[in-house]
Design a protein that fits this description.
155 residues, alpha+beta, Nuclear Transport Factor 2, Chain: A, 2 domains, five-stranded mixed β-sheet, 4 helices, 5 strands, 42% helix, 38% strand
Length: 155
Amino acid sequence: MVRLTRKRTLQKVLVILVPIVMISFSEICVFGQEWTAVQKEIWELEEARWKALLQVTIEGGYLKHYREDGSFWPYWSEEPLSLVKYKEGVIQRAGGAFNVELTPLSVKVVGEIAIVQYHCKLATYAGTIYAKVTSIRVKKDDVWQVISDMYSKRN
């Protein structure tokens, strides 16, 4: 009788555990997939512009591929900004950043449009800023230009 109860308990545990393990394994495989060459190229552009920000290279670095007709919504603004207003705010804040850590979450490419989403940890002299970022790029003349950025602070 005791042996039968243990067997049933083991069967119940296996019925619960096997699907959980299978689901976990499939999730690991999905997130472990290799990026395409285009996805890698786009992510390298994101990393390069943040490095430029740390070097306070704004015009030819951080904002190098931003479109004049884009819309940009940083965490420090109540509303989306034109490139001119965004540039003013970035220049004002750029000197205080000294380290950045980027964690890619998603790089989706649909035709000539790329949507890049990631977490950003920006160390500044005023403190550390944790943000989630969505950057939208469009490919024009073989250049992935930024047409929109949105940053929001996260806890």
